[in-house]
Write a structure and sequence with these properties.
Blueprint (H helix, E strand, L loop, with lengths): L11 H9 L2 H7 L8 H5 L3 E2 L9 H8 L3 E8 L9 E2 L3 E2 L5 H11 L3 E7 L6 H4 L3 H15 L3 E5 L8 H17 L4 E7 L7 H13 L5 E5 L8 H19 L3 H6 L1 E6 L1 E2 L5 E2 L1 H13 L4 E5 L31 H8 L38 E4 L2 E5 L16 E6 L1
Parallel strand pairs: 1-2, 2-5, 5-6, 6-7, 7-8, 8-9, 9-12
Antiparallel strand pairs: 2-3, 3-4, 10-11, 13-14, 14-15
Helix pairs in contact: 1-7, 1-8, 2-7, 7-8, 8-9, 9-10, 10-12
Length: 406
């Protein structure tokens, strides 16, 4: 997902357990508020506090009644190592900037969850040696900020790495055990049938490890989705996958299922205006789903007239809106009433049609990496990840994304 978005050994499990059981208490001493109800952590929209022109969290709270924020993203250091950083560059251990944002939110009666991973960058599950070492790195984040909630955002390229996924799921289980009451969400890519092959493998890894988070959330965008109907269809299909994987009935599966959308124009040019958010919100609440969030508050504002909805931005939605329209849906999911009005239902701008010219013909001997384009069978295709000698097809679990006829 995302989306313009950008160690210890085996013996560590014993010492981590000793530290982890008191992590939330220790964190509270450094300024954490009493935990909010889980519904607020489930409704927390993503906010990048250090990038993409961060908005004033306190102003959003005043305007909408929002109380919880999903701060993004914790990554391994760009230079290597098994220690937590913000966006790969700012060490958590020495951070004061994000701590200041958190203090502002908590002073107004709110709280934060922290998201790890996201799209791009090196994840701690890739950099750390094993689940215990990965958990120890994340425990530093929980302890420093006194967290009551954490989100594992497992996406490309990490979720294609079996060892990395094993580390992340194992770490999530350790943190859940060592921090009683910690709200844990796991977010991954969405497809029309719920989630793709790698998402299903992640669920099987969780089952094998005996790990059950508060929810598994999918991101039904950037995959050929056409509005809310396609999104709710994917959520229904994902529910079936959860049932078959964990042996849950439908209601139990929905109680462990979440939605993570993208407001406005997605990375691939899909449009999700306010009316689509309302439709998905109605679906989520009527099926008693556990989570409703979106990427991102940095984008929850009107673009300048020059943008005209023709590009995807990290700092605005590319649809007509009032500031913080989309945040109000999170407030409604949490069960609160936004203090001002209702979001403005507006149609999306008409996107500029893509060029019909064919790209360079696909070659089975060529190595393609994520974002590379080629033409095949009178269609243009974009590589989702590293691939060679895999002919482009419409298979949703395959390495190619169909960009249309050429």
């Amino acid at each position: 997902m995302r989306r313009l978005r950008a160690c210890l050994g085996a013996a560590a499990a014993v010492s981590l357990a000793a530290v982890g059981t008191t992590a939330l208490v220790a964190g509270s001493a450094s300024g954490a508020t009493t935990a909010l109800g889980n519904r607020w952590y489930a409704a927390a929209p993503y906010l990048m506090p250090l990038d993409n022109d961060p908005p004033d969290a306190g102003a959003i709270m005043d305007a909408t009644g929002l109380k919880a924020f999903q701060l993004a993203f914790i990554l391994a250091p760009n230079g290597g190592g098994c220690t937590p950083t913000w966006d790969g560059t700012a060490a958590v251990s020495s951070d004061t900037a994000v701590q200041s944002v958190i203090n502002t939110i908590r002073a107004k009666g709110g709280d934060v969850s922290v998201s790890i991973g996201g799209y791009g960058g090196t994840k701690l599950g890739q950099a750390c040696s094993d689940p215990a070492a990965t958990a120890a790195a994340y425990q530093q984040v929980i302890t420093k900020y006194g967290l009551h909630a954490i989100d594992f955002d497992l996406e490309e390229p990490e979720y294609e790495n079996t060892a990395a996924v094993r580390n992340e799921i194992g770490a999530a289980k350790i943190l859940q055990q060592n921090n009683p009451g910690l709200y844990v969400s796991v977010t991954t890519a969405g497809t029309a049938d719920g989630t793709g092959w790698f998402g299903k493998q992640m669920l099987l890894e969780a089952k094998a490890q005996g790990f059950t988070p508060n929810n598994f959330s999918i991101m039904p965008f950037d995959g050929g989705f056409n509005g809310a109907t396609a999104q709710t269809g994917a959520l229904a299909n994902f529910n079936t996958i959860l049932q078959s994987t964990f042996g849950w009935d439908q209601a139990t599966a929905y109680a462990h299922e979440g939605f993570s959308g993208m407001n406005g124009r997605s990375d691939t040019g899909e449009y999700f205006p306010q009316a689509d958010f309302q439709t998905v919100l109605d679906f989520a609440t009527s099926h008693r789903m556990d989570r409703f969030t979106f990427w991102s508050l940095n984008r929850d504002r009107q673009c300048s007239p020059a943008d005209n909805g023709g590009r995807t931005s990290g700092t605005c939605s590319s649809v007509a809106q009032n500031s913080w329209d989309f945040a109000k849906y999170s407030v409604k999911f949490a069960g609160a009433t936004p203090p001002t009005g209702t979001p403005t239902p507006t149609p999306p701008p008409t996107p500029t049609p893509p060029s019909s010219a064919c790209k360079t013909a696909w070659n089975p001997a060529t190595v393609y990496t994520a974002g590379n384009e080629a033409s095949y069978d009178n269609h243009n295709w974009k590589a989702k990840w590293w691939t060679q000698n895999e002919a482009p097809t419409g298979a949703e679990w395959g390495p190619w994304q169909d960009e249309g006829a050429c």
